[in-house]
Amino acid sequence: MFSATSPSVRSPAFPARRILNAVLGAAAAILALGGLEARASPQARTEIERRNVATVEAGFAAWAAGTGSPYDLLADDVRWTIEGYSLASKTYPSREAFMREVIRPFNARMKAPLKPVIRSVYADGDTVIVFFDARGVARDGKPYINTYAWFLDLRDDRIVRASAFFDSIAFNELWTRVTPSE
Description:
The protein is of the alpha+beta class and 182 residues long. The protein has one domain (16-177): Nuclear Transport Factor 2, Chain: A (Roll), CATH 3.10.450. The chain is 36% helix and 33% strand. The chain is built from 5 helices and 6 strands. It has a 6-stranded mixed β-sheet, with helices on both faces. β1 and β2 form a beta hairpin. The chain is globular.
């Protein structure tokens, strides 16, 4: 599915790339969040922002409870981009492509599913940014722990566009170490 030689995959060329990826991801998140601080408090949010935040938080609550996920909110024609240099980094043109190529194979590598813990939620109009940690246990018994920043554009309570940032090294290590179950 993914290989280091695929032109659509951006692979680190050397170990120092890990530090660069982390710094770039953190800088992007900090810069984006810095301009939204005034909109982060519930009192300052518009009605649309309150509704979008409530929709996304409900998806995360269902994910944490094991009864659903934010992926249930994806529009069929969502454009989900995994930023950075992970083996899955590219833009997926639809819900089905993203689920088929990333989420189902990821979940098939897990013994205990990911459980998210939100650190912060920010809103600006139709965009909701969720900064969160997630942890689970891979099929080989080793923990998988990562930190994410998702930039989600919503329309009519559906996610229509997303950009996801996370530790590519942790993801790649799991992706190559653990074979998905059938």
